[in-house]
Design a protein that fits this description.
Oligomer: single chain
Number of strands: 11
Strand order of the largest sheet: 5-6-2-1-9
GO cellular component, one term: external side of plasma membrane
Distance between the termini: 62 Å
Low-confidence stretches: none
CATH superfamily of the largest domain: Immunoglobulins
Keywords: Glycoprotein, Membrane, Receptor, Signal, Transmembrane, Transmembrane helix
Pfam family, one: IL6Ra-bind
Number of domains: 2
Membrane topology: Single-pass type I membrane protein
Main location: membrane
Mean pLDDT: 82
Helix content: under 10%
CATH topology of the largest domain: Immunoglobulin-like
Structural class: mainly beta
CATH class of the largest domain: Mainly Beta
Order of helices and strands: EEEEEEEEEEE
Strand content: 35-45%
C-alpha cells in the first residue's frame, strides 16, 4: 500500500514498427513534485527484469513514460512493474494494456486477366512482435475503380 492518490493511472504500452514500444501513464492525482515513478519490465520468463533506460518526463521531471527499442515479446508473456516513491513511501501500481499497431500486409501483388475479368490478390501477413499464428489476422480489401 502506498499513499492514496499517488498511484499511476492509464498505463498503456503501444508496440509499433514491430520492435519499438512506448509506454505512458498519468501521474497520480495527488502526486507532488517529489513523486517519482520507475518502470521495470521483463519480456519473457527467461529474461531478467530491467529498468527503463529512456524515460519521458513531465515539466516537474517526473517519469511519465518510457521508450523501448528492439522489443520482442515471447509467447504473449510480458511482465511490467511501475513503482516509485514520494517522501520515501512506496506507491501502488495499476493494471496495464498492451496494444500493437500492425504494419500493412507485405508483398501485396495483384494479377488481373482481361479474358476472365478476374483478379488475384496475394499478400503476406504483417510483421509483428509476438503473434506467430497467421490465422489470428483478418483482412479487408477495398477495391476502387479509377
Amino acid at each position: 500500500a502506498g499513499m492514496n492518490g499517488t498511484d499511476i493511472e492509464n498505463f498503456v504500452c503501444v508496440i509499433f514498427n514491430v520492435s519499438f514500444m512506448n509506454c505512458t501513464w498519468h501521474v497520480g492525482r495527488t502526486a507532488t513534485e517529489d513523486t517519482q515513478y520507475y518502470l521495470y519490465w521483463r519480456p519473457s520468463k527467461e529474461e531478467d527484469i530491467t529498468e527503463c533506460q529512456n524515460y519521458v518526463k513531465d515539466d516537474c521531471g517526473r517519469h511519465m513514460g518510457c521508450r523501448f527499442q528492439n522489443v520482442t515479446i515471447d509467447n504473449n508473456y510480458a511482465y511490467f512493474l511501475v513503482n516509485g516513491s514520494r517522501s520515501g513511501q512506496s506507491i501502488p501500481i495499476s493494471d496495464y494494456i498492451i496494444v500493437e499497431k500492425l504494419t500493412p500486409p507485405l508483398n501485396v501483388s495483384v494479377n488481373c486477366t482481361e479474358a476472365s475479368h478476374r483478379c488475384s490478390i496475394r499478400w503476406e501477413p504483417p510483421r509483428t512482435s509476438h503473434v506467430k499464428d497467421e490465422s489470428c489476422f483478418k483482412y479487408e480489401i477495398v477495391i476502387e475503380n479509377k
